[in-house]
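Why does residue order matter? Because the sequence determines the fold. Keep that principle in mind as you read this record.
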Amino acid sequence: MKRFRVWLLPLALAAAQLAIWPGAADPPSAAATVTGAAVTLVVAVALLWRRSAPLAVLGVVTVALTVGALGVPADVLVLIGTADVIVLYNVAVLRPWRLTLAAAAGTMAWQCAMIAIGPPDPDLGYPVEVVLTLAAYSIVVAFGRARHHWHAERAGAAARLAEAEQRRARAADTERHRLARELHDVTAHHLTSIVVIASAAQRLGGTRPELVAEARDFAARTGRDTLAALHRLVALLRLPDERPGPAARRLAELAEGFRLLGQPVTVEAGPGDPPGPAADAAVGIAREALTNALRYAPGGAVRIRLATADGRTELTVDDDGARGPGVTGVGSGRGIAGMRERAAALGGTLTAGHRPEGGWRVRLVLPPASAAPPARAPRWRLGAEQVIDVMLLLLAMILPLSVLLAADDDPAVTRAPVALLLIVVLASSVPIALRRSRPWAVLAVVTAASWAWPLLIVAGLVPYSLGWLIATCLVAEVIAVYAVARYARGPGLSALSIPAALTAAVLAAAAVLVMEPSMGDGEIPPVVALLIMSVFLCVPIGAAAGGAWLAGFLVRRRHGRILAGEHDAVAAATAQAIAAAAAERARVAAGLRAAVLRDTARVATAADEGDLDQVLDSARAALDAMRGLLDGLRADPGRDPVERDPQPTVAALPGLVERWRAGGREVGLELREPGRPLPADVDLSAFRVVELLLAGDTGPVSVRADLAGDPLRIAVRPMPADPGGEVAAGLRARLAAVGGTMITGADGGPEFLLPAPPNPGGNRPDEQRSAEVASSPSG
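Structure:
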């Protein structure tokens, strides 16, 4: 269909031109016939490329029409001569405004030259012809630029729809990640604390029995707090936009909770409060950093500093290092990565590492939230619509003004009150500029102005010979009818503009015609003459008004349908995104109720009954259930379970290697099984070390993992390229978490050692297995 529209116009133009010439009554010369036919053919063929190469086509058409103007009698190529206007319109639609301006200036200069070398128009004169030509070409360019802006708006709407579709596609994943952070924040602060305190009480209960009672009290109190927090989270799943209080108050409450666990924490918060998303991120990252300090630096002083200036948020969490043995087996290594993801989601950065003076530092920097620029007062500028308005006014006024202001010997013109006529011409033309904002008012004004001409003639102020100037009002009325159909509110009533304009225009024009001197011989009564003239004028004026209304109505309906379709598509994609996020919240709420809340309730019950072993079992079971829920959130529910990421343990190393092989990479694995249960943190760290070392694309690679001895030995050959240092940073953090080291192996390459001591407390195998799976859901 698009290709059909491209060649239909050139074909119709060429056929119409050849039909009216050279088939004229006076046969042209053979040279003129050949020239005219060649020009018509060249121009028609060139128009086939008017959309793909409009500037080149404009050059070809200009040259061909120049040849036609010099070799063919004047005004016989009138139809094919409009080709330059067609191509200039396509230039304005398809090319930037600078090229359009240059092309329009060149085309206008060429047309003015053609008018100068051609035969003069005795009625208009060269200046008027030039002004009309410039106005006509300016209107063509303005309409083309308006179409260009329409296409740009449609492209913008398509981009908005694509963005909405992307949000819809990402909605479930985005909500899963958000909920994963929320769940991690709850469990890291509550359930992990229970495991830490209960484990310490079990380990030291023989020498300090008072710790057992304190651990039971803490587990009972914290278990109930955990239940309350989880119930609040379930409620927030229904109200995702609810926001807690100021960040400084939330950090103070967070610090107080960790002080009860024996971790000295101080908070320094400057004036001002970060915006909602930045405050949530700062509190969540502070909670994660404090939890890590509790695990790996128990008893060490921790300082939290929060500063907000010019919309920029900076959070620093420093600890002085451990004052006692840390607790292993309750983390899964995703804490720092999760903090970085949360910072990156807001366009910020997070750094974590050892402090030169000892201890650990976590630093978060968030940029100012994007805000809309301050509103500025609207500034008038000359755009396509303004050019169209000016040129329409010029075209409507140029002919009557040229007649009124010309130095003519016609006594009818010299006796006429020129100032009064100018007022009438302006009254019927200037309102056109307001047709978009006040279409009905414009129609009323130009309709009333049309009656000025018969009244002035009856009053004897204007001679009948100038009555034809009423045509200015008739043209303005047709434009006003189009404007009512196109822009007026209540489009269902816009059809009333046809009879309103038709009645006034027909009666006013008929009244002017009836005043013709020959009509006053008394043969036909004035009323009868008025009716007869009205009937004759009703057809052409009614056709013009009806056509103008239909054109405006169809353009309005088409544009309305396009805009409504774009709006509905964006709204539908947004609604689907909201529904997908709601479905994820419902799924998480169901998972919380099914497992996590049940096991968490058992923690408080077991603590009230004084059963510290059951407290530990229930807390670890709740953590395990939470981790399973979070693993489901981080994975794609639509993927086959076999394709999901393996659980991060040494038992999953063959599966990790198979995934790389399935991706087309050659990976060899030499694995010596541990033959015994490994501590959960070491088990996880061994997997993560191999995962990090396989991250680089180094071609064929070999993995050696000796997990049978103490320490575990891991090596990958060749080592991955690490231009940004991300792999090295990840390895340092992973080794530091479990007290691992890096040495030089027998082959000269690096080898990574992870300590694998016997499990403390002499746990039975089934108890040890429970300890392994009860790692924190932070990773």
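Residues 342 and 616 are 30 Å apart (CA to CA).
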